[in-house]
Amino acid sequence: MYLITMRPQQIQDAVRRNLPALFCAGSVEYHGPHLPVGTDFLIAESLLTEIEKKCECVVAPSIPFSSTMGWAGGPEEGDVDFDPDAFYVYAKAELKGLMNMGFRRIYVLQFHQGADGLPCLTLKRAAAACIREAAKNWGNGWGRKDPSRLPNPDVFSWIRVVSNLDEFSRYPDGDAERISLGHGGKGETQLVMARHEDTVRMEALHELEKLPQWLEDAWEADRKEGEKWLAFCVEGWVRELSGDIFNK
Fold first, then answer.
1. How far, in Å, CA of 248 to CA of 244, rounded?
2. What is the pTM of this model?
3. Residue 199: exposed, middle, or buried by beta-carbon count in 10 A (0-12, 13-18, 19+)?
4. Tens of pLDDT, residues 144-193
5. Cα angle vertex 131, ends 162, 170, to 5°?
6. β-pairing, 21-25 with 58-59?
7. One Pfam family from the UniProt entry (predicted)?
8. Residues 55 and 5: beta-carbon distance below 8 Å
């Protein structure tokens, strides 16, 4: 279910049944001449689209922009270095809105710069602020109360901010092949191919006299391999979202 197409009664029913709510955040950033500037956003949204088909959840509107710091390119190449302060305010407002609706299992996929990147840290800050404000309303000593009588007994897991597509995936063993996700390289290129192949122009790589190191393996991208990894990641997320975190 998608939040923006749901009626009030459907939202109330989803909250009553403790369905998870999730949204993603990406970036508008140069990923090489062969990929769209919304690569991170498109990959993250593709994952959520497939998740929604396979398990009951509520997908809230995504956030396409985040800080890029001009790492890969400039505005003339479509790069938008979004102000992290503005990002924080917007993200906090969306998270608070979902909390106020009654959702108690909120997941955010920030697919840009990794767990220690500025966008993910900003989102975690917004999540922490929302949780703190909610807990402050419960009065002092709320940790000594019966957890079942709190608005959310699992307050510290109320909002999960993750940066990896395979966050909840199970690899066969320690030596198993891992998903490749270098910036604009093979991994991201084939994931875009998996659902947005029409936006990819591999021949455009010839426009560069010398490929930066992070693009050198882009030629190895394969659409079918991208579909395989997308399905693998979806499986992990579905397993996570289908469980009730309060009864694990």
1. 6
2. 0.93
3. middle
4. 888 888 888 888 899 999 999 999 999 988 777 899 899 999 999 999 99
5. 25
6. parallel
7. Creatininase
8. no
